[in-house]
Amino acid sequence: MPEFLELHSKTSKLLRAAADAAVQRHGLRLGQDHLLAALWAEDGRTPGEIAASVNVTTPAVTKLATRLAEAGWLERRPDPRDNRLVRLWLTPAGRALQKPIETERQTLEDRVTATLTKTERAQLLKALTKINQVLLDGP
Amino acid sequence: MPEFLELHSKTSKLLRAAADAAVQRHGLRLGQDHLLAALWAEDGRTPGEIAASVNVTTPAVTKLATRLAEAGWLERRPDPRDNRLVRLWLTPAGRALQKPIETERQTLEDRVTATLTKTERAQLLKALTKINQVLLDGP
DNA sequence: TCGAGAACGTTAACCGGTAAATGATCTGAT
DNA sequence: ATCAGATCATTTACCGGTTAACGTTCTCGA
């Protein structure tokens, strides 16, 4: 397997495991924090809007929403004007998770980039941005 | 979300989608190619051995193996000495996939790193390696 | 020799993700 | 005013991954 792809996927896996562990300390599972983050940024959006903002399909959001609702972190409420729409609202408990989770993620970010110099870190971000761009531009 | 984690996970997603598309052109699904790659490197190993070499759990391998066997790319054969063991062997069809899939992956690697200079590419690999190491060393 | 414990692969239940099918509601042209 | 088509969220069925439970087979000490 090519060098970069191999290394990147290995890193992904480790990063995913680390993020999962961090988030589980607060009763969340990986992926759920992304949905919550979208709601911390802006409450009361529809599953479709949130899916688009998180780059995930709508069914993924509705399933996560169901679990987060069961856990008491958000609630579904119908849109008053358009009955097709559902709007997701944080509960106080869901809102209270913001700081701990953000701290957790920042700690992880700091830990994994700790052995990089400022320059290395900047170069890494630049390179990943370039790669991202190539992929977004399509084949 | 912190800068690097955000960027890395976005890249992962795009890379995953691109790799999936590439591999699907040959009738495979993402993940199956890793198992096959392990077999191209060395045939006749057990699910447990392969799982360890690919950094995946054993059940993941047995499920993949079932699907790949149904598709005719590998077969399960019992170990002649130890009846607890199963050994996975490539069929000619499975072996024939090696070159096309490897070409596909190399093409993707070349494409995504095309906009990087040699130096940038080397720095990227170095940085990712460092991050990998931090994660392997554990919390 | 034989039986308890270790070492296997598999199965089951779950999770996050996807695509495709479903069903309800809105919209706009006629 | 109506109805065909668009637009939603949800359900279903699948996939790769995980952990935990299960059943079979070896191994090795008493």
UniProtKB/TrEMBL annotation, chains A, B:
GO MF annotation, one: DNA-binding transcription factor activity
InterPro entries in the cross-refs: HTH_MarR-typ (IPR000835), MarR/SlyA-like (IPR039422), WH-like_DNA-bd_sf (IPR036388), WH_DNA-bd_sf (IPR036390)
Annotated GO biological process: response to stress
Source superkingdom: Bacteria
Keyword DNA-binding in annotation: yes
Domain HTH marR-type, first and last residues per copy: 1-133
Keyword set, alphabetical order: DNA-binding
A Pfam family annotated for this UniProt entry: MarR
PANTHER family: HTH-TYPE TRANSCRIPTIONAL REPRESSOR YETL, TRANSCRIPTIONAL REGULATOR, MARR FAMILY
Name this protein carries in UniProt: DNA-binding MarR family transcriptional regulator
Organism: Kribbella kalugense
Lineage of the organism: Bacteria, Bacillati, Actinomycetota, Actinomycetes, Propionibacteriales
